[in-house]
Amino acid sequence: MAVPPVGERPRLVLGVSGGIAAYKSCELLRRFTESGHDVTVVPTAAALEFVGAPTWAALSGKPVSTDVWSSVHEVPHVRIGQQADLVVVAPATADLLAKAAHGLADDLLTNTLLTARCPVVFAPAMHTEMWEHPATQANVATLRARGALVIEPAEGRLTGKDTGKGRLPEPAEIFDYCLEVLTRSSSGAAAGLTDLAGRSVVVSAGGTREYLDPVRFLGNRSSGLQGYALARAAAARGAEVTLVAANVSLPDPAGVKVVRVETTAQLREVVVAAAAAADAVVMAAAPADFRPVDVSTHKIKKAADGSSPAIELTQNPDILHEISTQRSRPGSVIVGFAAETGDASGSVADLARAKLARKGCDLLVVNDVSGGAVFGSPDNEAVILAADGATVDVPHGSKGALAHVIWDEVARRLQD
What we know:
By secondary structure, the protein is of the alpha/beta class.
């Protein structure tokens, strides 16, 4: 990867506070530097108990300091924050979150947080009890109210034998989250950077499976990439995101609650329940239209006479139609997806318009999948049809870019 000249590189501040997860931030730093970012590491004194200053200096190519007294002539406690394009604190301990929420400035990192006028991302990591404590939750709410992005911690193994919510999300996912924020900020969308803050959204992703027997199933080619891009984009815009993943083998996006399902019935159960409290639901998953009437309890064997078994199918419930026409939350926005190829009955556009009317959703994202296009690809192009007659053409680009266009349309309708 070609690294741009220093003056053209996005300037990042990586704050590191004193938690055991500080070692993971070495991987985050490596990802930033190798992708061409100019990174200044600002650890707390406690963080250096876990990872020493020489490590941060070697990985960033810059000297490291924790206090405001080094290089005083350069006024680092003001300059570093003023010049940054993004500040990310990973891990952010309960102590650091409390200091940031109350405007304390007793070291270089907390001074930097006060002087930064760019987007600020906190990636908390602590024991479950500390995360759930009312004081921590109040501090997180304060920071979010001020426009900071606080990533929800992951669930899993913590220090020692403990498990629960409070684990630092994987560095690769924090990196992707920060790229979403940085790209959106640099593109001129900074004013709406947290336009989904305080909103609860549900995204479905992947393809369901309908079992014929213990080893065989009916399925489809959906990879889940678009749904995951939608979840990641929503989280980066401040939303509380529930991602319902059907048979997807992708890492959990940072700050997103992931619920895994297999069948259409399971997908329906989770989505319908979550939609009751959601401001928006985006059905990017590809539910199977049919399921076998009977599922064999044993593997279906080949017949000796060469005949094939007869499999009777029945229709699955229409989840998109159900949540669109039986809305538990007034004013919610429902988005569907249509993978069309066109046929003798009409073009892709004709079939999509008919589907929009039939489903009752507010927006329908239409993909022309002739020849297998879109499936498994990192890129996409689509037409977004609205129930009010509006049409948005989204040119070929990344699935992340399409995700943000979709959320732009959702956010606009949530404000109406």
